[in-house]
């Protein structure tokens, strides 16, 4: 059940209506039923996996709490057995085929014919998200940062809460668990704010992300047929596609939860305003970035160690982050590149600082700030090429194709190239896209300076509802959907 589907537009109002009609003590049970129905609508068998992960982490947390701090080795055994169990499930469904393929390839290099047994299994949607959420909870209990949840069903709701189940945010137990015990009352303003955020998320997804996908897919599915200019255009647009796609999902998820009285963590904070790659990762997919920071990077030693170990920790963390995204070397390369950027940036910082001083550049000047934003975007976008490419070798081939056939002649008439049929987008769609990007940039800029929601709340009812209807009709008129289009899944559903 996609957020951008008719099924969800029927499902969500029913869930909310019943939720507020029920007495407080029964609401969380209704959400649990609704969440499992939501997840089972993809495939009923998926429920067995999420239930297994739920029971394993719940029991492990209870065991560790009952053992107490005096039973250190037993608590460690309980923790690691739980981690291994969950990661084993994740490995089998997500990484087994990838590992088997690479083992066989290494065997061929060594002159051996290895045949690793193959299993035809589907990747359960959202498995990486709820696995990390469950592991975060059990680690927090092990560290003594929160008590173990006694009620299995209530804990099951924490793992399966449907707004953020399949693509995050990866919620922390310290933020969401206590909210499942608190009463929630119908608040018209909160409901309105939640629906407004959902509307903006639909705008990002349907008007922008899915429209950009028309061009990006045409180029990336057949890069040999395109010039360097077209590949660069598609790659730049993909940066906005993945942002609008994932930020759109997060906004819909956060808004849906807000309607029912729950507060989910913010997942994006103006990432393309970042002035360094490390700054970008403090703003992008915040729930995953902070998860890797707290449970991988800091336990490895973080930055409080020898410099070479600090750099090692960065590279390990970001390479694992890339692998988390998918069982392809292209994802590992993408993650490693983002880690390498930060290592190189740290090593060259003194030189760059001296150079800027010699040139008399104002460290706080707007020109320098925008230059750093541009350089950061270029580095991040180059890495996005490998993220989007169908494979690592395809990504390398696209770079080679761009070098061999740059297609610089198209720059004489930039609008002409988008009328080419094989790019999948004509002038009309491109004009809508440009206008939507302007709106996105304007809203993002304003949100960094003022609280737009508070500003809107201060306006009279006519202005407020005018804004609501503009968003609704913009999505209805300019959104990419209908019988001639397949319902486009959110990109992060594949992870």
Uncertain segments of ≥5 residues (pLDDT<50)?
Answer: none
Distance linking N and C termini: 16 Å
Shape: globular
Helix content: 55-70%
Describe this structure in words.
By secondary structure, this protein is mainly alpha-helical. The chain folds into 2 domains: about 150 residues, no CATH class; about 260 residues, no CATH class. Helix content is about 70%, strand content about 0%. It has 19 helices and no strands. The radius of gyration is 24 Å and the shape is globular.
Task: Give the SSE map.
Elements: H1 6-21, H2 24-40, H3 46-67, H4 72-109, H5 127-142, H6 152-160, H7 173-176, H8 188-220, H9 228-259, H10 277-281, H11 286-300, H12 307-325, H13 329-358, H14 366-388, H15 392-404, H16 414-417, H17 427-449, H18 452-457, H19 461-478
Helix pairs in contact: 1-2, 2-6, 3-4, 3-5, 3-6, 4-5, 8-9, 8-17, 8-19, 9-14, 9-15, 11-12, 12-13, 13-14
Summarize this structure as a short list of keywords or feature phrases.
2 domains, about 500 residues, mainly alpha, 19 helices, about 70% helix
In brief:
This protein has 495 residues and is mostly helical. It contains 19 helices and no strands.
């Amino acid at each position: 059940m996609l957020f951008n589907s008719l099924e969800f537009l029927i499902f969500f109002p029913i869930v909310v209506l019943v939720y507020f009609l029920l007495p407080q003590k029964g609401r969380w049970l209704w959400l649990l039923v609704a969440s499992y129905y939501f997840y089972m609508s993809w495939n009923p068998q998926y429920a067995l996996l999420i239930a297994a992960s739920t029971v394993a982490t719940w029991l492990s947390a209870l065991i560790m709490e009952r053992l107490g701090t005096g039973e250190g080795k037993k608590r460690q055994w309980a923790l690691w057995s739980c981690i291994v169990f969950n990661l084993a499930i994740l490995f089998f469904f997500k990484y087994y085929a990838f590992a088997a393929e690479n083992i066989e390839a290494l065997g061929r290099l060594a002159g051996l014919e290895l045949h690793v047994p193959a299993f035809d299994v589907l990747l359960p949607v959202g498995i990486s998200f709820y696995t990390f959420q469950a592991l975060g909870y059990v680690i927090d209990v092990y560290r003594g940062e929160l008590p173990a949840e006694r009620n299995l069903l209530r804990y099951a709701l924490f793992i399966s809460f449907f707004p953020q189940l399949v693509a995050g945010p990866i919620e922390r137990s310290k933020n969401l668990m206590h909210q499942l015990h608190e009463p929630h009352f119908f608040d018209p303003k909160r409901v309105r704010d939640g629906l407004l955020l959902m509307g903006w998320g639909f705008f990002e997804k349907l008007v922008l992300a899915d429209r950009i996908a028309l061009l990006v897919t045409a180029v990336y599915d057949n890069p040999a047929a395109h010039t360097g200019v077209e590949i660069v255009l598609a790659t730049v647009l993909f940066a906005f596609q993945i942002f609008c796609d994932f930020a759109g999902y997060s906004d819909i998820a956060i808004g849906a939860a807000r309607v029912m009285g729950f507060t989910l963590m913010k997942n994006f904070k103006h990432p393309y305003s970042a002035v360094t790659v490390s700054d970008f990762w403090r703003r992008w997919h915040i729930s995953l970035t902070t998860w890797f920071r707290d449970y991988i990077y800091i336990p490895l030693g973080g930055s409080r160690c020898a410099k070479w170990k600090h750099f090692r920790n960065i590279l390990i963390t970001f390479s694992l982050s890339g692998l988390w995204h998918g069982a392809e070397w292209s994802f590992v390369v993408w993650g490693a590149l983002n880690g390498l950027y930060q290592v190189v940036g740290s090593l060259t910082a003194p030189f760059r600082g001296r150079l800027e001083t010699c040139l008399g550049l104002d460290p706080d000047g707007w020109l320098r700030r925008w230059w750093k934003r541009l350089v950061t975007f270029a580095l991040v976008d180059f890495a996005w090429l490998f993220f989007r490419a169908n494979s690592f070798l395809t990504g390398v081939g696209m770079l080679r194709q761009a070098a061999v056939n740059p297609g610089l002649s198209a720059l004489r008439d930039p609008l002409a190239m988008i009328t080419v049929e094989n790019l999948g987008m004509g002038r009309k769609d491109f004009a809508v896209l440009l206008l939507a990007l302007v709106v996105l940039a304007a809203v993002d800029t304003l949100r960094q300076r003022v609280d737009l929601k508070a500003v809107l709340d201060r306006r009279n009812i006519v202005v407020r509802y005018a804004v609501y209807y503009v968003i609704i009709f913009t999505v209805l008129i300019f959104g990419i959907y209908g019988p001639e289009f397949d319902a486009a899944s959110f990109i992060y559903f594949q992870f």
